[in-house]
Amino acid sequence: MTAPQPAASDIRFRVLYVSHTAHMGGAETVLLRILPHLRHVAPTVLTPPGELADALEGAGVAVVRSRYLGKLAKSSNRLWPLAFARRFIGSQAELWRLLRRLRPDVVQANTFYATLYALLPARLRRIPLVWHMHDCIAGRRSFAWLSRLYARHVAAIVAVSRAVRDELTAVGVPGERIHVVYNSVEQRPAAPTAPPAFADDLTAFARGHHPLVGMLGTVQPEKGMLEVVQALPALRRQAPEAGVVVAGAPRDPEQERYRARIVAWAEANGVREHVLWLGKIRDVRAFFAGIDVFCHYPVFPDSLPTVVTEALLAGRPVVASRMGGNPELLDDGALGTLVPVGDPEALAAALADPPPPLTAHQQAAYLARFAPHVQEAALERIYTDIAGRASAKA
Asked: Does the pLDDT value for residue 73 go beyond 70?
């Protein structure tokens, strides 16, 4: 559905948002959720052709399809440095021309790598650049030194959680430059027009498995899906009918190998028939309705996993690793169970005895923290501050 566009008289800021990937990951979903509903911002998005560009255009957002931005497949391309050099040089000219044509008040780089592409053209055109940081650094040296470089040249830094802010300050980014702005969540999930394709498989699997533990996301090592499956034997000793269902799919050959590794481990340890793979899904509400407890167990810090908020708002109990943004989203354990990484017995015990779901009152209060108007107001305050500082220098 196309969102109503703000009247020209209501526009306060023209913002160019730069996204370096085309797929619908977490950072890209944030754009799709917030941009169609901005009341005082006229957004344009520069992004590669693909799923994100199509979804944004369908929601009524102006899109420019980039010829040069895009995710590099490093694991399967030994010549990726050459590909990056070509993309970087081409993107600089592309952004320079676009900034000259659009003359935005602000450029907002939606990802860590998008900031790398947007930094020089924005500086040369003297347009304030906002770095929107969705990722945790967690010891990655390249992220640390680039973060310090970015901080010296951007007008503002938006961190999606306190966990992200704390990691940035730990590597030398000034804390006073960082604004913590939570991503908004979908307020009223659309009712499905028909049962999803996975409904029969999930229903049949649920008949023989309880509790049914659900995981949702791209199948990749950082998400800890292998560790959850490895806890399944211990869980079944406490709950003999327990099963695991995974909603999500690999995106590249490396992730395909990771999925195969999980399947092989489950086969070797006698639990393969107790793990259901749904693949990529669209009807998240039906998925949550079909499981008993949601588990988000990243072994690498996840900055602000919106799947946790979605599960809580769907009335599912949540068990999560004590890492990244999970403690923030679960109020340090008040709204769900937090378990340490690397302790399958503790994970199994938490899944066998999950916390209660949120009450209706708790859901309403929780939803208010992540409403689009809260994120919009925070971004507008940042843009207003930037504009004020730019006027003072003029």
From this structure: no
